[in-house]
Write a structure and sequence with these properties.
The protein is an alpha/beta fold. The chain contains 12 helices and 13 strands. The longest helix is centred in the N-terminal third of the chain and has 16 residues. The radius of gyration is 20 Å and the shape is globular.
């Protein structure tokens, strides 16, 4: 059965709309097979326990499929849930759907990834990472490790995912020393010594095995590559496959001849950082995104107002000591 049909059948079983004396709010990830979004789900469920009269309906495509996510949101609008929090896979396509939500009086917020600026009026606020700043932090790590610059490959998510395009813009702009007009920024062609190799950027569409294969292919075809920078967790989420892909380059990694900078700080990624198979991770706070989404939707249906945007913060980790302190929180 196609992934979208699986999701919709689950939605039908779960049921939507206002429960007796309460509200049902939907938290829609890009994909339900992504471990990053599991933490947002957990935050959403905890908020539902803590907040009186709130049900968290966590629902989305079983795999990263833009059309399936659009269909999920369309179905939620038809069933008239009390509020929707969505992480758009395709900002343009999602905006077209959210016109229906606005016309139906259903409050909408975005989380993790936002709409384009011209469509921001279709949602009340964005909750999550300041994505351009995330790319800036990755670039700062690279500048410290490779002050003279070098060749770089950027691996991203979906080409239409605003969050990853904003991260790429922050990364590129900071390395180049410019401020570009719009995401994903201008390609690095020698600015401040930084040059993107011809095969990159890479787009994984949140396909983790593909992300590992892309990484392995680039490392093999670009023996003098200086930096592999990842805007999401993609290859690291399948950590055993990632280890196999980078282990042949351990000597280069340990000598800083090859630098790898990742995004997110999930448990398996922290292990990779401790093992020296990454030089730094810039982490988001997905649990907070899920929790705050429920709080904000409740505030909106109760007639309140909220700030826009609502940033949940970043964590920058560069070694075992940082990991130990992070895990002790």
């Amino acid at each position: 059965m196609p992934a979208g049909l699986v999701v919709l059948s689950l939605l039908a079983v779960a049921g939507c709309g206002r429960e007796e004396g309460g509200y049902t709010f939907a938290l829609v990830p890009k994909a339900m097979n992504n471990p990053f979004f599991d933490f947002a789900r957990d935050g959403c469920m905890q908020a539902a326990e803590d907040l009186d009269g709130v049900e968290c309906l966590y629902i989305g495509p079983s795999e990263h499929t833009e059309a399936d996510q659009v269909q999920v949101v369309e179905d939620l609008i038809t069933r008239r849930v009390d509020g929707v929090a969505v992480s758009p896979s395709n900002a343009v396509a999602m905006a077209r759907v959210l016109v229906r939500a606005r016309d139906s009086g259903i409050p909408v917020i975005t989380w993790d990834s936002d709409l384009l600026a011209e469509d921001a009026g279709l949602r009340t606020t964005y909750i999550g990472t300041e994505n351009r700043a995330m790319g800036v932090e990755q670039a700062k790590l690279l500048q410290a490790l490779k002050p003279e610059g070098g060749s770089i490959c950027i691996q991203s998510g979906g080409a239409a995912a605003m969050n990853h395009n904003e991260r790429m813009q922050g990364l590129r702009d900071t390395l180049a020393g410019v401020v570009s007009a719009a995401p994903p920024g201008e390609r690095l062609e020698g600015q401040n010594g930084w040059t993107e190799v011809a095969a990159c950027p890479l787009y994984t569409n949140d396909d983790f095995p593909l992300a590992v294969q892309q990484m392995a292919d680039v490392l093999a075809s670009e023996p003098d590559l200086d930096v592999f920078a990842i805007t999401g967790g993609f290859p690291q989420f399948v950590d055993q496959a990632y280890r196999q892909a980078v282990e042949p380059y351990r000597e280069r990694i340990e000598s800083l001849d090859l630098v790898i900078i990742g995004a997110d700080v999930l448990p398996m990624q922290l292990d990779l950082l401790v093992e020296g198979l990454s030089h730094g991770q810039v982490g988001q706070r997905p649990y907070a995104m899920g929790y705050r989404s429920m709080e904000v939707l409740l505030e909106l249906v109760s007639g309140g107002s909220v700030e826009d945007p609502i940033y949940t913060g970043l964590d920058v980790l560069t070694g075992a000591e940082d990991v130990e302190a992070f895990r002790a929180r």
